[in-house]
Q: What sequence folds into this?
């Protein structure tokens, strides 16, 4: 099983200490009641994964770990590969671990390249990554100098992927993933930066999500919001039918102008749109580490500017805002 004791000890003497009033019981309930049918298989892959101390670790430009020459045998590399493949599909990455290239569905490094230039310095900051997936971006946040990166994502496969990567990064304690949704967090008011990337359009109540994000920030803290947008004015919001690009749980896709207004309505200040970028089939695609359908299968084969349902094809915007 996953042991969260290191995280509890880490936050016990920090501004997050009051989280310990609720978090251990939440995670204890999760351990007992909410396990996926394949969780035992996934956790075995994590437990059998060796903890390796890399000779070279690069989290600033990528997530890359290298061992000293001859430190890992060919058989050990093959074993690590087998355990990593047991944790497929890999959606967020890529990871470069001891010569193993996990070519994930998403080129999350491209998203980070679009986001990172617009951030306040992460050096020494405590950051929260909501809907963090496998934790790829948390490692990049640590590489950018974050003191502590906390990710939340209820998908148990992502937790196991994160813990497997952590073992291959030498057991690094600067990032932690908790199997929770944002609605399970109390108003902590303790994070210097909060990231919500690829989450807002999955929320039935987007303004409630923005208020939840705001409640996690310190006064003067920074929100980094990345989400789907459509072209239009401040009144334009797309409400898809049953599916959008084959995704069932897509509720509201606003224009960037509407999104700015939403953030201001929720009390954020200094709201800026810093990037708008169409999602391409080079950024999200099928790979040998994610072999099911991907973006190319979700677009109109006769018109790639539209989804297979006839909606505008995915375009993503990055907005930066502050809590007063």
A:
């Amino acid at each position: 099983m996953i042991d969260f004791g290191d995280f509890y000890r880490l936050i016990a003497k920090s501004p997050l200490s009051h989280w310990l009033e609720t978090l251990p019981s939440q995670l204890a309930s999760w351990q007992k009641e909410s396990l996926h049918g394949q969780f035992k298989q996934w956790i075995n892959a994590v437990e059998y994964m060796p903890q390796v101390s890399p000779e070279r670790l690069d989290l600033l430009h990528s997530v890359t770990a290298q061992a000293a020459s001859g430190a890992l045998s060919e058989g050990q590399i093959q074993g690590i590969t087998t355990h990593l493949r047991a944790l497929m599909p890999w959606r967020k990455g890529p990871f470069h671990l001891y010569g193993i290239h996990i070519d994930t569905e998403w080129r999350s490094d491209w998203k980070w390249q679009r986001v990172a230039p617009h951030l306040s310095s992460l050096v020494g900051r405590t950051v929260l990554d909501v809907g963090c997936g496998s934790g790829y971006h948390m490692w990049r946040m640590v590489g950018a100098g974050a003191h502590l990166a906390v990710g939340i994502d209820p998908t148990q496969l992502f937790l196991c992927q994160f813990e497997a990567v952590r073992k291959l990064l030498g057991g690094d304690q600067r990032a932690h993933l908790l199997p929770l949704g944002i609605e399970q967090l109390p108003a902590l008011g303790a994070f210097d930066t909060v990231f919500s990337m690829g989450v807002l359009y999955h929320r039935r109540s987007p303004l409630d999500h923005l208020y939840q994000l705001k409640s996690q920030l310190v006064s003067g803290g920074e929100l980094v919001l990345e989400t789907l947008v459509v072209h239009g004015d401040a009144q334009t919001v797309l409400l898809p039918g049953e599916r959008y690009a084959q995704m069932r749980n897509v509720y509201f896709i606003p224009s960037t102008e509407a999104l700015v207004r939403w953030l201001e309505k929720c009390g954020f200040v200094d709201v800026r749109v810093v990037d708008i970028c169409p999602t391409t089939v080079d950024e999200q695609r099928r790979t040998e580490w994610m072999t099911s359908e991907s973006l190319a299968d979700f677009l109109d084969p006769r018109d790639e500017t539209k989804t297979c349902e006839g909606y505008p094809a995915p375009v993503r915007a990055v907005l930066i805002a502050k809590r007063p």
In short: The radius of gyration is 20 Å. The chain has a mean pLDDT of 97. The chain has one domain: 36-323. Residues 190 and 218 are 5 Å apart (CA to CA).
